[in-house]
């Protein structure tokens, strides 16, 4: 793919770009080509040249890629006249529901019950499942959906993955609830639209915006915290993560500060990707958090008795702030979208953040 015409992205070695706006994304032997309307003729020529060198099948406008369904058109989000694209996995979800005999099960309004503590199952004396393969298969299927188009279930999947080696009855009940939630929301698609509007919660829809959060010491077994972040662009989530932090933190400030650091690493990668695609730096990237102490620790750079032990590898946020690459801001807990990635939420809050992430 390397030629004088195309250059390899520094952010993603499987992405190749050309100055006229043609992008080619490779995955094993699949290629997805994207280009603006004015580059249509040039794109046809590129495909013709590829067919001369390789045996290829041109499937036309993309309707699916790696099991992800692609829908495009105008006004598909119901928020006015706009150019829109949406990504879904309805076929995949229907397949896994049938595979695990859950197609006739009752639905669920959230992927995880906020009143159930999975990490206390051993204390309750529950017995391990005799056959763990079924549990692992369900978790693996849910994981694919969570990583591809469904950030609304990522925390639940991340929590259930911890018990792949020794699941008990309550874990199986919880993972089946994930399937029940998928039955209710099988039609959900991740929507991206360009309307030129300003959303009161996420800001301008063409501005990359991030939220980070943590749930301090939420694991009763090892007392480690859960961190999470989500990046939004064009009214939809483009990057998300929910992961237990590597070590025990001494305060909510430290847990939030580490969540900031992890989110900032992803921000640097997305900024590089933006530079590769657009040929220029992105505007100041806002990252929002609901902890004033963590924000102060970044913006002032002060070292205090209860923060001096924090490892140097987590101070990257300070550097990004000092160089005016990232703008760290406070947002109220009730408006912090990343909350959905750190804990199981009640129905109303879960639905609110799901919609903000573009899942409809």
Describe the structure.
Helix 3 (133-148) packs antiparallel against helix 4 (154-161), helix 3 packs parallel to helix 5 (169-184) and helix 6 (252-278) crosses helix 7 (292-300). The two termini are 37 Å apart. This protein has nine helices and 15 strands. Mean pLDDT is 91; it is low at 76-80 and 197-204. The longest helix has 27 residues, at 252-278. The protein has three domains: 6-60, no CATH class; 87-184, no CATH class; 197-356, 2-Layer Sandwich (Nucleotidyltransferase, domain 5), CATH 3.30.420. With 360 residues, the protein is an alpha+beta fold. The protein is globular and about 65 Å long.
């Amino acid at each position: 793919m390397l030629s004088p015409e195309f250059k390899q992205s520094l952010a993603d070695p499987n992405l190749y770009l050309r100055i006229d706006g043609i992008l080619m994304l490779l995955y094993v032997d699949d290629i997805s080509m994207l280009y603006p309307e004015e580059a249509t003729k040039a794109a046809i020529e590129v495909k013709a040249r590829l067919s001369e060198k390789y045996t290829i099948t041109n499937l036309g406008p993309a309707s699916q890629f790696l099991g992800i369904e692609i829908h495009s058109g105008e006004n598909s989000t119901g928020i006015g006249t706009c150019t829109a694209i949406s990504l879904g996995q309805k076929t995949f979800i229907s397949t896994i529901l049938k595979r695990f005999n859950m197609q006739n099960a009752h639905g669920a309004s959230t992927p995880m019950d906020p009143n159930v503590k999975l990490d206390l199952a051993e204390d309750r004396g529950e017995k391990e499942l005799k056959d763990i393969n079924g549990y692992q298969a369900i978790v693996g299927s849910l994981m694919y959906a969570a990583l591809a188009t469904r950030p609304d279930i990522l925390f639940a999947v991340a929590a259930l993955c911890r018990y792949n080696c020794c699941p008990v009855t309550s874990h199986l009940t919880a993972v089946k609830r994930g399937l029940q939630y998928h039955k209710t929301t099988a039609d959900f698609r991740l929507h991206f639209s360009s309307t030129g509007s300003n959303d009161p919660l996420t800001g301008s829809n063409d501005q990359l915006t991030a939220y980070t959060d943590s749930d301090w010491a939420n694991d009763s077994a090892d007392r480690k915290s859960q961190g999470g972040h989500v990046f939004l662009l064009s009214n939809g989530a483009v990057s998300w993560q929910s992961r237990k932090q590597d070590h025990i933190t001494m305060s909510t400030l430290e847990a939030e500060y580490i969540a900031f650091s992890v989110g900032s690493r992803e921000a640097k990668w997305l900024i590089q990707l933006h530079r590769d695609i657009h040929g220029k730096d992105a505007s100041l990237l806002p990252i929002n958090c609901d902890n004033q102490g963590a924000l102060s620790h970044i913006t002032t750079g002060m070292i205090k008795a209860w923060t001096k032990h924090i490892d140097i590898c987590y101070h990257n946020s300070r550097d990004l702030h000092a160089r005016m690459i990232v703008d760290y801001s406070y947002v109220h807990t009730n408006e912090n979208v990343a909350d959905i990635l750190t804990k199981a939420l009640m129905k109303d809050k879960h639905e609110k953040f799901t919609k903000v992430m573009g899942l409809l």
